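Per reviewer request, we include the raw input and output of the structure prediction for the construct analysed in the revised manuscript.
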Amino acid sequence: MKKILLLLISCLFAGFQVFSQHIITDRPDQTESSSTIPIRSFQIESGLMVENLNRSSDRAYFIPTTLFRYGLSRIFELRLGEQLVNYSGKTALSDLELGFKVQILRKDAIDTEIAFLSHVLIPTGTEWISSNSVGSVSKLAISQPLSDALGVGTNLGYANCGEGNGDFLYSAVLSVGLTEKLGSYYEVYGEYTNMNQWISNFDAGLTYLLKSNFQLDLSFGLGLNQTMNYLALGFSWNIHK
């Protein structure tokens, strides 16, 4: 287990890309891809997740969490995220996320891709779950293929919900293409909360390409220095004229 974690951490300054597949997605892992979706295409990435927090009875249901993406140009996409949360018997909408992703390095002569993405968090959510202030999340995404079926990737970012010093975000992922349709990933991710406390997690999952534009996924995660675990399943669908 230690060797696997060291391998993943060593990928921190590399990148991630899905291989032997036509659809590029930002789920189910925490690392955003360095690719934008095709121009004039619309992509839905949605799923269900059950997360156990500090205590076994402290459980949250995300039913669902959804990201909508639209390819405005070859290197630029618009993004909208929303999720419905059930916690302690109460159901609520989270704050709306509006954003974009732009590729800042994409050349056929080199394999490395770099993209920048940013979201504005608008306090439209139910009062008890909303941050009640405008926030932002920004990330730099880097990807690097190692072979036709192996790749690594990373995200480095910063989030601020309007209070405190904000959070430094990080993730590093190793992706493995098992067959032309079946893929897997292994990832470490976390944050430096309020710039004074490290939180680290591990997750892994499978993706299955049902069609060239439709992907299913299954994933799980657990806390490395906190009590947390989750199980999620979902789909991604690209609609392209």
